[in-house]
Amino acid sequence: MHPRAPGPLPYTDTKPVGAAGFYLAINATFRFVLNKFGLDGLRQYWTDLGAKYFAPVTANWSAGGPPAVAEYWRAFFAAEPGAEVAVAESPDAVTLDVKVCPAIRHLRAQGREIVPCFCQHCYFISEAMAAPAGLTVRVEGGNGACRQTFLRHAAATAPQDLSWICSVENIGDCLGSANAGGCKPAP
Fold first, then answer.
1. Would you tell me how many other CB atoms lie within 10 Å of the CB of residue 35?
2. Residue 10 within any structural domain of the chain
3. Contact at 8 Å (CB) between 176 and 162?
């Protein structure tokens, strides 16, 4: 059993906002893992990251339910440079309305080629965090803006359809429409 995190985040930092340059390292790491181990290997990497590194957050979510989930995401995005995110909480669900993804924004501003499946990491990491806490996540959109809904596992009507998550390679296809670029709206 992993200990609970001392606060909503699994780390402490003296800076009020993180360094945007870290997004370059994340994208490069995803590309390396994808090239070396393939898509299944990359998805397993994300799942392991969610299950192992974020285990203290999962312990907080298990103890605190949706209010702990909302507290985590508010703290997380408050520390992310350039994030524009609204967190809505109800007794049974937490919804993140990501109007501007700070990672995609920074990678584009730096002229970086973004791993096309970059946005899928939000699903695989979050699902690995949520499942042991009796929760699940559904992600729709992507490519710089998305909606992520965390709900009790029993309330989920269908598994995540990865086609709901836009590929970054479809630059412009998904902007302003979660239904464009081959993405389907969640039911």
1. 11
2. no
3. no
In the chain, the number of structural domains is: 1
Confirm whether 185 is domain-assigned. no
pLDDT at 64: 94
- Under DSSP, the state recorded for 48 is H
Q: Give the predicted TM-score (pTM) of the model.
A: 0.83
Is the distance from CB of 86 to CB of 110 less than 8 angstroms?
no
Q: How far apart are alpha carbons 20 and 169 in whole angstroms?
A: 21
Task: Determine, yes or no, domain membership for 125.
Answer: yes
- What percentage of the chain exceeds 90 in pLDDT? 57
Domain of 81, in residue numbers: 22-164
For 3-61, the pLDDT digits (tens) are 544 566 555 555 455 566 788 899 999 999 999 999 999 999 999 999 999 999 999 99
Instruction: For 20-46, give the secondary structure using H, E and C.
Output: CCHHHHHHHHHHHHHHHHHHHHHHHHH
* Two structure tokens written together for 77: 């995005």
Per the DSSP assignment, residues forming a β-bridge with 85 are 98
Task: Round to whole Å and give the CA distance between 120 and 45.
Answer: 12
Convert 120-158 into a string of H (helix), E (strand) and C (coil).
HHHHHHHHHHHHHHCEEEEEEEECCEEEEEEEEHHHCCC
Non-local (6+) Cβ contacts of 159 within 8 A are none
Tokens 């990678």 correspond to 107
